[in-house]
Amino acid sequence: MLKFIAPAAAISALIVAGAAYAQAAKLNDAQIAHIAYTAGNIDVAAGKQALAKSKDKAVRDFASEMVRDHTAVNDQALALVKKLNVTPQDNATSQALSKEAAAKLASYAKLEGKAFDKAYVANEVAYHKTVNGALKTQLIPGAQNAELKSLLQTGLKLFTDHQTHAEHLAASVK
């Protein structure tokens, strides 16, 4: 069963992304900000779980990077919405992301050692691919506010690097 967790996580992420794509044309900036912030928080939580469970230095270094970078982008997002006097608006996409992430964290909590490391890293690859795809095709094009769009573009550059890092890490975690 453990070998099916990572592929299932990737498929689940793609299903959630499909829902996000379907809704994105109807999303306003407050909803887009909420989705981006939620996605960042999800990766922070996953990174913290990896720091608590993994003993692999490369996995722990990657997890530290995820916590640091996603926290920094979310802090910038909070500052921006405060400056713009906008309240991020919860929506079905954010809720679906949160629900799926909670299930993944719970399933990964049952794993130990290399099984955890492989599942975490495989999920990070799939998650970054999904989030980067949503940023490129829906969230950035859908954002109306120039400052929000710029922050999302900055995030995309950083998260594309995360995806590459996760892909390289996945090749070395055996």
CATH architecture tag:
Up-down Bundle
What is the count of helical runs?
Answer: 6
- How helical, in percent, are the residues? over 70%
| Total beta strand runs | 0
Helix-strand category: mainly alpha
Stated plainly, the CATH topology is called Ferritin
> Which blocks of ≥5 consecutive residues have pLDDT under 50?
1-15
Name given to the CATH homologous superfamily: Ferritin, core subunit, four-helix bundle
What is the overall silhouette?
elongated
The H/E string reads HHHHHH
Number of domain modules: 1
Alpha-carbon distance between the two ends? 17 Å
Description of the molecule:
By secondary structure, the chain is mainly α. It has a single domain, classed as Ferritin (Up-down Bundle), CATH 1.20.1260.10. Helices cover 84% and strands 0% of the residues. It has 6 helices and no strands. α1 (5-24) packs parallel to α5 (113-142), α2 runs antiparallel to α5 and α3 (57-83) packs antiparallel against α6 (146-172). It is elongated and about 45 Å long. The chain starts with a helix and ends with a helix. Residues 1-15 have low confidence and may be disordered.
Characteristics of this structure?
single chain; Ferritin
Furnish the topology, listing elements before pairings.
Layout: H1 5-24, H2 29-53, H3 57-83, H4 92-109, H5 113-142, H6 146-172
Helix pairs in contact: 1-4, 1-5, 2-3, 2-4, 2-5, 3-6, 5-6
Give the gist of this structure.
The chain has 174 residues and is mainly α. It has helices spanning 5-24, 29-53, 57-83, 92-109, 113-142, 146-172.
